[in-house]
Amino acid sequence: CSKALGIGPHATMHKAEQLYLSGYLSYPRTESSAYPKSFDIMGTLRQQADDGRWGSYVRALIQEGGDHPPITPCRAARGGELHGDLARVYDLVVRHFIASVSQDAVWKSTQVQFEIEVLEDKGLFSVSGKELVSPGFLAVLLHKEYGEEERDPHSLDPDEEDEEVRSVPEFREGELIPISQASSGSSSGNVQVIPTGSYATLNIKKERKTTPPTHLTESELISLMEKNGIGTDASIATHIENVLKRNYAELITGRKLLPSKLGLVLVQGYHFIDSSLVLPQVRSDIENQCGRIAKGLASKEDVVQNAIKTFRGKFDFFVENINKMDILFGSSFAKLEDVGKPFTRCGLSRRYLQYIMGPPTRLYNKYTETVYPMPGGGAVKQWTGRKCTVPDCNFELCMYSVGNPERTFPLCPYCFNNPRREWMPNSEGEAPQPEVQDDDEEDKKKEENIRSGGRKLVLECPHPDLHPIVEELTVAPDPDSDGVLVLDTHFGPKWRLVSTKDPTIVYFPKGTERVTVLDKRDEELGFRMIRVEFNAESTPYKDGTLKKVTCFAADEELQNAVRVYHGSERTKMARRGGGRGRGRGRGRGR
User: Fold this and answer.
1) Beta-ladder partners of 517
2) Mean pLDDT of successive 10-residue segments in the chain (590 residues)?
3) Cα 568 from chain centroid?
4) Rounded (to 5) percent helix, strand, coil in the chain
5) Annotated active-site positions, please?
6) How much is the pLDDT for 134?
7) Cα–Cα distance for residue pair 207/152, rounded to 1 Å
8) Cβ(129)–Cβ(167) under 8 Å?
9) Inter-residue contact 81 to 91 (CB < 8 Å)
10) Which residues contact 317 (CB under 8 A, 6 or more apart)?
């Protein structure tokens, strides 16, 4: 499927299992390549006799009359019954099954050798071609990759000449064909022929030279794994998928596997310490021993004990020489402690965390070798030594700016990576029950975290609204979302409130000198009070008050004096040309 349909082996196995569970195909995780004597070939063919895609061929074929068998169709699927990759995989399996019980394809291949005596060894030429005599299984198998073997493009064997599908004229052995050299004024590269009776035109079709082998395709890798006894038909696809997920290689054009720098260094490190850990022989031996158990030639206990003894010795040797791997990685990759710059203090070790630009952006404690991934989509900035007020945290806070214009929120590196249930909106009363995940889901989540480097796209406040450092700045609900309005941590001189969910900014009137969020709460609404200070020209209050303690959510005079701006979730770098957002105006009436 990788070569014929462009579908990876892991995805192919997943689709085949779906078709198996739906009753369309037989068990796909099979290593058999021959049908058992009890298999009803004719009955399976009759199921496909009415299909519009290959029915006429099947009817003609019928008239001419292990553990699991090779994968075969179990019931017919009419056109349109299956869709997408499911339909493509089913189509290929059915065609391959029909082809496997069809007549051989018959080709007539012709090759004629010519010799020009005066050129001696350089005067040998040949022409070849082939004609299809009987199509046989090729009439139903549409994918050429499964119809004939491909020639090795790196071979220079003269006997392994490309054969085109074409007819070759009749020649007699020993027949002489006169030729002449091209005239000096001719631009043709062909050798001209004397225009008499029998003649021929010879030209150089192509010149070849040795070339380095290209990267392995998925299908080529599968063939090599089978040849060397690495994995089974049921597990090979998973092995390749894991190599890709762990960034040891990447899939490039033509479904070829390009080793990554990480993969190359890792393999070199294994070779440096113990080559047997990366060469196929050890894995092949284990697979062979499992096969001996299945055939009753060896006991499970003996095989397991020998394997444990072997790998324990290899593990101990590897641990003793792990410094060789460190040296190799150190010479190929920069160390995090050498890349970052001191940023904020860790609340656990009181050491400075290194700021790693990434991507992904993260903070790194070189003393404990702990990494704290930061949110993606905005900018992380320092914030003058303020500490997180969550009990037993004490990490120095950062500022996280996102959107255009920027909305800035407090950010605790530790709490961002270790959120607590009581901060979540649904944590009233009983704490929410964690989702039950099977081992496959947990492994999938871990693999995804490895690939993303822990990066999380965050276009709003990085902490829940009930987090203490957010709650300390909350002054009102946001009527346009399920978030709240908090005091922007940039503070002055442009004092403003920002929404924790939407790209909404509420600007205080010009001339506002200070806004302070107090511990005191409004008795009716429960939100924190604020102390606002104005100069004489900017106070919004009719009585000329310059300092006032008020609840923003209940103060209509102050609400009517603010300016509300609806911006963008995107950062300024991502949005060129600025723009005024969706609207601009005074008051909260929107």
Assistant:
1) 530
2) 65 74 69 64 75 74 57 74 78 78 81 79 79 80 50 44 70 73 43 43 59 84 83 80 89 88 86 85 82 89 91 91 78 67 90 83 85 89 88 92 90 92 65 46 49 65 93 91 90 88 90 91 91 86 87 90 80 41 40
3) 29
4) 30, 20, 50
5) 27
6) 82
7) 16
8) yes
9) no
10) 273, 274
Written as six digits, the tokens of 401 are 């700016």
Residues 6+ apart with CB under 8 A from 256: 214, 215, 216, 217, 218
Sheet holding 362-365, edge to edge: 341-345, 352-356, 362-365, 370-373
The encoded tokens of residue 45 equal 């063919």
Structure tokens at 478: 């946001």
Q: How far is CA 436 from CA 420, 441, 447, in A?
A: 18, 9, 18
Are the C-beta atoms of 549 and 531 separated by less than 8 Å? Answer: yes
Q: What are the DSSP calls for 452-501, one per residue?
A: HTT-EE--S-SS-TTSHHHHTTEEEE-TTSSSEEEE-TT-SSS-EEEESS
Q: What is the pLDDT of residue 415?
A: 93
Q: What is the dihedral of CA 151, 156, 160, 161, to 10 degrees?
A: 90
Q: What is the pLDDT of residue 49?
A: 75
- Give the burial string for 349-372 (b: 16+ CB within 10 Å, else e): eeebbbbbeeebbbbbbeeeebbb
Quick one: how far is CA 279 from the chain centroid?
26
Going along 243-340, which residue ranges are E strands?
A: 249-252, 256-259
Lookup: tokens for 552:
């923003």
Quickly tell me which residue has 């003649």 as its tokens. Answer: 199
d(CA 378, CA 461): 10
Question: Residue 377, by phi and psi: left (phi above 0), alpha (psi -120 to 50) or beta?
Answer: left
What tokens appear for 429 in the block? 């009363």
State the Rg of the chain over Cα: 37
Q: Phi first, then psi: what are they for 517, rounded to 5°?
A: -85, 130
Cα torsion at 434, 439, 440, 442 (round to 10°)?
Answer: 50
